[in-house]
Amino acid sequence: MNILDNAVNGYIESLIKDRSELLSEMETFAEAEGVPIMELAGIETLLQLLRIQRPARVLEIGTAIGYSGLRMAEALPDAAIVSIERDENRYKQALHFIERSPQNDQLDIIFGDALETVQEAESKGPFDALFIDAAKGQYQKFFDLYSPFLAEGGVIYSDNVLFKGMVAEENVENKRIRNMVKKLKSYNDWLMNHPDYHTVIIPVGDGLAVSRKK
Ligand code: SAH
Ligand code: MG
User: Fold this and answer.
1) Which residues line ligand 1 (CB under 6 A)?
2) Which domains does the chain have, with CATH numbers?
3) Torsions phi, psi of 23, nearest 5?
4) pLDDT tens-digit series, residues 67-110
5) Helix axes 6-15, 40-53, angle to 10 degrees
6) In this structure, which residue's CA is closest to atom 15 in ligand 1?
């Protein structure tokens, strides 16, 4: 389910141009294997913001199979993308897809838990953009661990902050999901009130927060 009205989202998606053969293959793979890559209108929004921002170095938390990483590399031909993934199968899958891509040289994938790869990532920084798209319960930790490596005027993008619209629901039945919603709402509150950042939440894809360092 998309948080935008389905008809409107469908209309927007219908206008988005087809991707390369490799990227389409990755989209099909993700769909078949249940890999939660970014939704189409969501990634297009992120890419457009990145084209405007023009970061030289991007740090992504949550590579999955490398789809968003490759798309960012394609949208930013001069940028270097460092990305962290803790799931070994997904990490290997990402390497297989990336080696087939013309953007191969722009990507550097770190295998490990982002809660433990801080030093390695720091050695590859500083970064102009940070993209948080990993375990939803730990966004604030990722933000606190990695925002120190953000360059002056840098931007932090957080995906899935509206969690299928459930952050706006009164009662969530499932206990595990209710707990996740609670954590995301607390992240959103914290982020919107962070004294060092201006943040806006864009209701596209699964909800994209854009935070610019003051
Ligand atoms: N950005 C990708 C989708 C990422 S899905 C895209 O749009 O193409 C989220 C990924 O984050 C999953 O593959 C999961 O294994 C990974 N992940 C979750 N918590 C993590 C952590 N603490 N450290 C590293 N990776 C993590
Ligand atoms: Mg996501």
Assistant:
1) 36-38, 62, 64, 67-68, 84-87, 90, 113-115, 133-135
2) 6-213 (3.40.50.150)
3) -65, -40
4) 999 999 999 999 999 999 999 999 999 999 999 999 999 999 99
5) 60
6) 87
